[in-house]
Write a structure and sequence with these properties.
By secondary structure, the chain is of the alpha/beta class. It folds into 2 domains: 2-102, Alpha-Beta Plaits; 143-326, Vaccinia Virus protein VP39 (Rossmann fold, 3-Layer(aba) Sandwich). It is built from 12 helices and 14 strands. Strands 10-9-8-11-12-14-13 form a 7-stranded mixed sheet, with helices on both faces. A 4-stranded antiparallel sheet has the order 2-3-1-4. A 3-stranded mixed sheet has the order 5-6-7, covered by helices on one side. Helix 7 (197-209) links the parallel strand 9 (190-194) and strand 10. It is globular and about 55 Å long. The relative contact order is 0.11.
Amino acid sequence: MKWWEVCIESDDKITEKASMVFLEAGANGTQIQNPDEIKSLIDAAGAKELADYGDFPEIMDKYKTIAYFVPGTDLNKLKGALNERIDNFTFLWREVDDNEWKGNWKKYYKSFNITTEIRIIPSWESEGISDEKTIVMDPGRAFGTGTHESTSLCAGMIEEIIKKGDLLLDIGTGTGILSIIAAKHGGGYSVAIDIDPAAVRTAKDNFKLNNVDNAFAFLGELKDFEKFAEDEKFRAVFDSFLSDSNRAALLKSGKLKFDLISANIVSDVIISLARDMKKHLRKGGSLICSGIIFGRESDVVQELQNAGFINLRIRRKNEWTVICAEA
């Protein structure tokens, strides 16, 4: 498949802002090259004696953010969005065939701890490994491998507040990682939704890899939820996990409320969905939202409060924020 690879580079630390602009513009994946982080990894590995920073000018001299878009994307509009938030950058693009790089990223995706209790292991390194503290992950082309700050922030918050049997609505599920973490911590049923068909396929695959049979991924947006509830497959799967007759009745009436909603998306979408997300939460339920860059934190907080959320808790990691709010 053909893609348009867009790269912006700068002498300034613009990678996080650029990544957010790309994601908001519909990028099908981003890649960051931060010279500071690369140098710190070399130093931490004790590799200074083995490598001179000057031997890698292509990755050590500039801050770069690379994103992939479908051919036909309005690049002038994309440049305009970048110019509104970022100064002093070079804009480059080219057409690439994913056969050139498909699978190459796997050598950089290694096992790691996403929370204090859960470890992520790539599917190609998982043979013979199976326990409740491990998640086997095959990212595919979906966002949410666990390496990004916004995903790890959401994961940590879910781990902290989820209770046995809680029903989760996972908006923008990506790889399905947050639904899997919820299941690993005793969560009840998860409805995972995404607007990207590749993400839905990846989430379903990862549910199978981890023997998670109480989560199901649907293609669509939050506004499509009532449509999901009318789907026979949705009803059949959900009814099998709802032992509480009252909740089953709520499902059939299309008024099912969730105990927990995760929304690891972007600030503007969180703002636009705030009121609708609250409608899908039971009173006292929790919304966990991230994909919020620090500069947009106050905007999201204000809209959540306007929508009626209370008891907001905020955590930050580098330039990213997660907010947990009570309905």
